[in-house]
Amino acid sequence: MKNITAYLTIKNKTYYTVLTYYVEGQRKLKWVSTGIKENESRKKAEKRLIQIRDEFINKLETITTTKTEDKKVQISFADFMIKWLEMIKHQVEESTYTGYKRQIEGRTKEYFTKHPIMINDLKPVHILDFYNWLYLQGLKGNTVVKYHANIRKALDYAVQTDLIPSNPAIKVGRPHQEQFIADYYSEDELNTLFQVVKDTPLELIVYLTAFYGLRRSEVLGIRWSAIDFENKTITINHKVITVTNESEDIETKTKMITKSKTKNKSSYRTLPLFKEIEELLLYTRKMQEYYKSQFRDSYNNQYKDYVCVDELGNLRKPDYVSHKFKQILRKNNLREIRFHDLRHSCATLLVKKGISLREIQDWLGHSSLRTTERYAHLDSSSKIKSASAIEKALSFSTNIENKEIKKDILDLDSNTSTLENISNC
Q: What's the predicted TM-score (pTM) here?
């Protein structure tokens, strides 16, 4: 134990040990008699001082440890998760925090309030029971994995801060994720879609998303300053997302935030400008100038550098895009897919056209090739090449005439065998 000093003094003709120590920043004194009289050996009193000091240090450490353990017992896992959420609030992006908050203040809090457990009593079986409950609520494995990731990170923090000796989530296997099967539009379906979105508010948005395989946040974040009409390039370096806005009212509101930061480092990319896209962009810019001159003071100039704005200059909202997209599909009796599936459609088209997965990774802005490899099963051409190679290497005679001759021989053998059986009878 540090910051504890001891010295000898005489009181009532007896040597006393005076201990000086601190508790929560406050200086404390403790007098302990050595039992050795003033007229006895001082060296004997000094040895006794050392013994008294060491005993006091051990006692103080035991008391401190006990208090700490008692304090741990008072922290429930549900309360700890809420505290961890507040701790990371300023360490992650607002959109990431919103996702964590929805999980922790939602199903995590609900379950562990009904099934309370103290954090230092938490075992792998309790976590597994929670995951099973999530499955019963209708959640898919891909979503349960996100709960697992948050719990593991939170418990890592609990270990670092000495709340628990080890992380029980490490002993829990990662929940099984469903195999990714992308829904997408074929070439014909995409071309039909381009026809029906013509002259609608989503025309440019759909074209940009399908041609470049953009995320919804990326297409809404495209700015005029990112388009180089001279060198025919478009740079993806900005995003627009919707997050939950905390308010004192019971109702929660949403707000849009714009960020000059894409999902990951690979998401920042510069792509060639298609002629069709360039024409649409130039037309859109001309229309924006027209609306600005018509609505004047009513026009919102805050987003004048953004491409995807409405007639009054307001940013197109992510939820509006998804909802409007669904309306257009239903109105025109097109097969219903999610707006994000246009990104999958772009990836699928590239795979089927023989573009390598490495090139597709760069085009889509995937952080790793592993993400892109989810589309590898769509490359039927590579399987045809493999089948052809095997067929050539392991060729065998498929002459129909030989087959017929062999069949006749087999029939003859069969008849002979039958005659022999009859004669034997």
A: 0.64
